[in-house]
């Protein structure tokens, strides 16, 4: 075989951006892909949630932009590898906050924090540094549009609001949280509206995204479909 015919280089890595509405399974797919490809999985939403937690713990109104900006310098966000789960967890000022950022108290305020440009600038800078060496699967709202505009694979995920509320409600119930289905549904519809209509980095899709509606797909089916896109992307850079 001469050099022209050599197969795509096995060690080449890509960045994978997964964007979409709340609770549509972005994290599940991102984790599956990262595990299979031996890539790093980063949940960018956990960073916005961690900032929200900090703001609420300091009794600041998340809609009071000036006050939030004033304390941003005191917020240190990092990811540490949890050796038990093998996953990266968000660490706020030295303390892992994974177990505190998913409740409705944070969910109901996070989209106000995510509207603030100074917050976005700070978090996007961290996210871009993480992706410099490739091999990252990151999910969020602006990953393929703002954070990694050159990502080799961009996936836009969606599912019906009812299916998404069912899934998130089951997750929260399993975590022992006392919430009603209606509260969960209202929260995700309200976040989708704020996330899609904000001025800075709204949730939106460009023509270079692959669209994945998983309303009627199992985890295995969505993974198989996404892996065909990964192969295409790897072949393209091959
Ligand atoms: O898990 P779920 O899809 O419900 O939300 P998340 O990914 O944890 O994100 C929580 C919130 O953070 C979103 O509703 C957005 O307001 C914000 N976010 C964002 O603005 N940009 C990102 N890249 C990720 C999250």
What number of domains? Answer: 1
Shape: globular
Structural class, by secondary structure, is: alpha/beta
- Largest sheet composition: 5 strands, parallel
Under the CATH scheme, which class? Answer: Alpha Beta
Give a structural overview.
This protein has 238 residues and is of the alpha/beta class. It has one domain: 3-Layer(aba) Sandwich (Rossmann fold), CATH 3.40.50.300. Helix content is 46%, strand content 16%. The chain has ten helices and eight strands. Strand 4 and strand 5 (95-96) form a beta hairpin. Helix 1 crosses helix 10 and helix 2 (44-57) packs across helix 6. The protein is globular. It binds cytidine-5'-diphosphate.
What's the structural blueprint in terms of helices and strands?
Layout: E1 15-20, H1 26-37, E2 40-43, H2 44-57, H3 65-71, E3 77-82, E4 87-92, E5 95-96, H4 104-107, H5 110-113, H6 117-130, E6 136-140, H7 143-147, E7 153-158, H8 161-174, H9 181-197, E8 210-213, H10 219-237
Parallel strand pairs: 1-6, 1-7, 2-6, 7-8
Antiparallel strand pairs: 3-4, 4-5
The structure holds cytidine-5'-diphosphate.
């Amino acid at each position: 075989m001469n050099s022209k015919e050599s197969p795509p280089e096995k060690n080449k890595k890509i960045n994978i951006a997964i964007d979409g509405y709340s609770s549509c399974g972005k994290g599940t797919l991102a984790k599956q892909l990262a595990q299979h490809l031996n890539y790093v999985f980063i949940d960018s939403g956990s960073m916005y949630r961690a900032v929200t937690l900090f703001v609420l713990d300091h009794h600041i109104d998340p809609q009071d932009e000036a006050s939030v900006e004033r304390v941003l310098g005191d917020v240190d966000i990092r990811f540490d590898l949890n050796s038990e789960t093998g996953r990266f967890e968000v660490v706020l000022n030295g303390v892992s906050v994974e177990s505190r950022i998913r409740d409705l108290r944070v969910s109901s305020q996070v989209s106000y924090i995510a509207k603030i440009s100074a917050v976005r600038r700070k978090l996007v800078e961290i996210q871009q540094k993480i992706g410099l060496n490739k091999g990252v699967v990151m999910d969020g709202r602006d990953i393929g549009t703002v954070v990694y505009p050159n990502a080799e694979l961009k996936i836009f995920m969606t599912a019906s609001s009812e299916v998404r509320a069912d899934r998130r409600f089951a997750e929260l119930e399993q975590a022992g949280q006392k919430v009603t289905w209606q509260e969960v549904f209202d929260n995700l519809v309200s976040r989708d509206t704020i996330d899609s209509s904000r001025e800075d980095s709204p949730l939106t899709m460009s023509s270079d995204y692959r669209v994945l509606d998983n309303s009627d797909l199992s985890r295995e089916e969505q993974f198989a479909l996404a892996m065909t896109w990964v192969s295409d992307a790897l072949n393209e850079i091959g």
